[in-house]
Amino acid sequence: MSQERSERDTVAFEVIDRVAWVRFNRPEKRNCMSPKLNRRMMEVIDELEFRQDVGVLVLTGEGSAWSAGMDLKEYFRETEAQGLAGTRKAQRESYGWWRRLRWYQKPTIAMVNGWCFGGGYGPLFACDLAFAAEEAQFGLSEINWGILPGGGASKVAVELTSFRNAMYHALTGETIDGRKAAAWGFVNEAVPAGQLRARVSEVAALLLAKNPTALKATKDAIRRVREMTYDNAEDYLVRAQEAANSYDGEGRKEGIRQFIDEKSYKPGLGAYDLRRTASANPA
Ligand code: ACO
């Protein structure tokens, strides 16, 4: 592509059956994240967050990459040339949408279709679940071009995998494939590339059948309790459920009713029928 892509065009998305499929859309640059892409991504996820017709967001990449990390030219070299203010602005724009995604209203799934490097670990961790093509390649390549894994990438590695794995990964800059990424805990599962979308659609459908208020409370709980003592977590979880009740007073009662009175489902084996409660309407 000889002409530069417009900011608007750096991200593509469509909503199909309540799943928002959002794509890094700079395949000619292996979907590396430029300031333009970061700004556009924030706008897109912002637009989708409270849409009634969206229940799950999937983040994937157009072409052969998920994301080749930060754009070394536009994110590093060109913003550094603008001095500290330029660097800080670019950091805010990228870290900003990753943070937004970490605490997103809807459950999120990273569908890692190809290359995933460095800064790509930010959005990878921001997504609640992650599925990769077995053929995908993951790497903390920072060491290969002379920096440390910043932008949260070091933190993501130690959050997701063992100390020894993280250290080896960061010090050597060697890539691992999707299968190893699953074994290391970077993603939930790896499947052959040809089956990736079908598997992710299956998981998205599972999530769409759950109470949306409970999904948001649960995803936040799993992230928050990681850094709490047991007693703090116990207290937080009581309060988080009570806060969730203020948004959804009837959902859980209906869940109990369909099991205990109606005997129409078993909570151990699947979700209650959402369509028969007020909480069928997503937040
Ligand atoms: N920053 C800037 N440009 C990039 C980046 C990047 N991170 N990744 C790819 N590109 C550009 C290339 O410069 C090239 O541009 P050109 O067509 O104008 O020459 C184009 O994308 C295609 O890249 P190729 O290298 O030709 O693609 P190939 O498929 O052969 O290789 C690979 C893919 C392995 C991903 C390679 O592009 C690569 O190593 N990219 C850098 C990965 C990386 O280390 N990212 C930084 C991580 S550290 C951080 O994010 C903080």
Average residue pLDDT: 95
What pattern of helices and strands is seen along the backbone? EEHEEHHEEHEEHHHEHEHHHH
**CATH class descriptor of the largest domain:** Alpha Beta
The CATH level-2 architecture of the largest domain is identified as Alpha-Beta Complex
Strand line-up of the largest beta sheet: 1-2-3-5-7-10
Low-pLDDT residue spans: 279-283
Main beta sheet: strand number and arrangement? 6 strands, mixed
CATH topology group of the largest domain: 2-enoyl-CoA Hydratase, Chain A, domain 1
| Hetero compounds | acetyl coenzyme *A
**How large is the count of helical segments?**
12
Structural class of the helices, strands and pairings? alpha/beta
From the N-terminal CA to the C-terminal CA, the straight-line distance is 40 Å
